[in-house]
Write a structure and sequence with these properties.
Layout: H1 2-23, H2 27-47, H3 51-75, H4 89-112, H5 129-136, H6 141-163, H7 175-194
Helix pairs in contact: 1-2, 2-3
């Protein structure tokens, strides 16, 4: 009984957070809701007694979203309102319908078919944590390390780009003010080059 109530509760919370992510205009609110949705997804792993995958879900995905949150705060003006221009709404409707149909097929197919078996069953003595570690640090060691290096380079690049001072938010200025500001910056850059 507890599992059913927890499943429906976390399902509702997860879907709500991801709907907030999609429909909100503010980038920082969207990233906060995305992080909350990833944390609620980890609850499903804990309900299935896959504690290791639940902890990995929290640390890896939520940590990645927090890094994305930092990039969002550094690069985006969170006060701007995004106005979307959909050029072909019929195509968007058709693609949305196809995606919804694929999702329904994915969720209904395990119910219809009864002969589904796990390719790598869980060892009853120690679980699958040891198996994941062996595969990750033998077969997938180089991609794992390359991903770590790429994330480090992206973080350093983001810090360098964020270190450049931006005195004025361009979204709050009119086009004339932006042109004047760019001209003064060009004049200042040319004077620095001459010196």
């Amino acid at each position: 009984m507890f599992e059913i109530v927890a499943f429906y509760l976390f399902s509702f919370l997860t879907i709500t957070m991801f709907c907030i992510t999609v429909y909100v205009n503010n980038a920082l609110y969207a990233l906060s809701a995305l992080a909350a949705g990833m944390i609620f997804i980890s609850a499903f792993f804990f309900l299935l007694d896959a504690d290791f995958l639940g902890v990995v879900q929290i640390t890896v995905y939520t940590g990645a979203i927090m890094a994305l949150y930092a990039f969002g705060m550094m690069f985006f003006d969170s006060l701007t309102v995004v106005k979307e221009k959909i050029k072909n709404p019929r195509l968007v409707f058709l693609l949305s319908g196809l995606i919804a149909l694929i999702i329904v097929i994915i969720f209904v197919s395990p119910i219809i078919t009864t002969n589904i078996q796990a390719q790598y069953p869980v060892h009853p003595s120690w679980g699958n944590i040891q198996d994941i570690g062996i595969v990750l640090f033998t077969k997938y060691l180089i991609p794992f390390e390359l991903a770590a290096v790429m994330l480090l380079v992206a973080m350093i690049g983001g810090i360098i780009l964020a270190g450049k001072k931006m005195d004025v938010s361009y979204s709050l200025l009119s086009e004339d003010e932006i042109n004047k500001l760019e001209k003064t910056n060009l004049i200042q850059d040319n004077n620095k080059d001459k010196k």
